[in-house]
Every structure is written in structure tokens, then in C-alpha cells.
Design a protein that fits this description.
Helix content: 55-70%
Largest sheet: none
Structural class: mainly alpha
Number of helices: 4
Distance between the termini: 43 Å
Radius of gyration: 17 Å
Length: 68
């Protein structure tokens, strides 16, 4: 992790690294909110993700169900 972090700091600077971490954390939180509130998976993503959703048991969650 140190090597990767140092590489990013050299490439874009420490302030940009902090911004990027904030954006990544926000996306992580948004996914959790979507699952908790039952927002359905986009129709276009249903087929490409079918195998791993079944394997992980995601289909049993409200947000894993098709909107139709």
C-alpha cells in the first residue's frame, strides 16, 4: 500500500490523493444506502451480473431484485 500511495502522490499530489479517497469513500457509502433502501439494480446490469449475484446470494436482498 505504501508503494501505491507514494506512486499516486508523486503522480497527482497529496491533495488530489485525499480528494480521490473522498470520492471512493462516497461511492462506497452510496452503494450501502442503495442496498439498505432497496434501490433495484439497473436493468442493463442484470444479465452481466447474474452469475456472481447468484453465487453471493445478492438476489435475496431487495435491491437485488429486478424492477419488473
Amino acid at each position: 500500500m505504501d508503494a501505491a500511495r507514494n506512486y499516486v502522490v508523486e503522480a497527482i499530489g497529496s491533495e488530489a490523493l485525499v480528494d480521490a479517497c473522498g470520492v471512493a469513500a462516497t461511492f462506497n457509502a452510496i452503494d450501502r444506502v442503495a442496498d439498505a433502501t432497496g434501490i433495484p439494480i439497473d436493468e442493463a446490469r442484470l444479465e452481466p451480473t447474474a452469475d456472481f449475484r447468484e453465487f453471493l446470494g445478492i438476489n435475496s436482498f431487495p435491491s437485488g431484485k429486478s424492477p419488473h
